[in-house]
Amino acid sequence: MASEPNTQSRVMFQAADKTEEPAHRKLGKLTVKYNRKDLQRRLDIEEWIDGQLHLLFDCEEEEIPELEIDIDELLELTDEGQRTRLQELLQECGKPKEDFINGLLYRIKGLRKMSGPLKK
């Protein structure tokens, strides 16, 4: 009688269904695509951007103008395009912004887009 529940559990929970295999493979791709090191590097860059914006605008977070620096968008552009886009975004800033732009462009070198293959 003890063997009957085990047999039923196997049949119910360990079915050899072909549809489960691709889902398992997709999980493997996601793990490789979004590895912890890349995510941590991106988070560090975003925190650096936040701190630098506080210095550039010399104000509290609530007072910083509506500004979104999209790292993935920058990665789609050429080097000169990245520089131009950042200058456009920071045009309201009265302080010199070249150090910030150079620092950000240096930090995003080698980053991969997070949503690149999904946009196709």
Can you offer a commentary on this structure?
With 120 residues, the chain is mostly helical. The protein has a domain at 36-108. The chain is built from six helices and no strands. The longest helix has 22 residues, at 36-57. Mean pLDDT is 74; it is low at 6-15 and 116-120. GO terms for molecular function: protein serine/threonine phosphatase inhibitor activity. Keywords: Acetylation, Phosphoprotein, Protein phosphatase inhibitor. This is Protein phosphatase 1 regulatory subunit 14B.
Please describe the structure with a list of short key phrases separated by commas or semicolons:
62% helix, 120 residues, single chain, mainly alpha, globular
Give the number of DSSP strands: 0
| Gyration radius, rounded | 23 Å
Largest sheet: none
Unreliable stretches covering 5 or more consecutive residues: 6-15, 116-120
Number of helices: 6
Give a brief rundown of this model.
This protein has 120 residues and is an all-alpha fold. The chain contains six helices and no strands. It has a domain at 36-108.
Outline the secondary-structure elements.
Layout: H1 3-13, H2 20-33, H3 36-57, H4 71-76, H5 79-89, H6 98-108
Helix pairs in contact: 3-6
Region (Disordered): 1-20
Protein name: Protein phosphatase 1 regulatory subunit 14B
Family: Belongs to the PP1 inhibitor family.
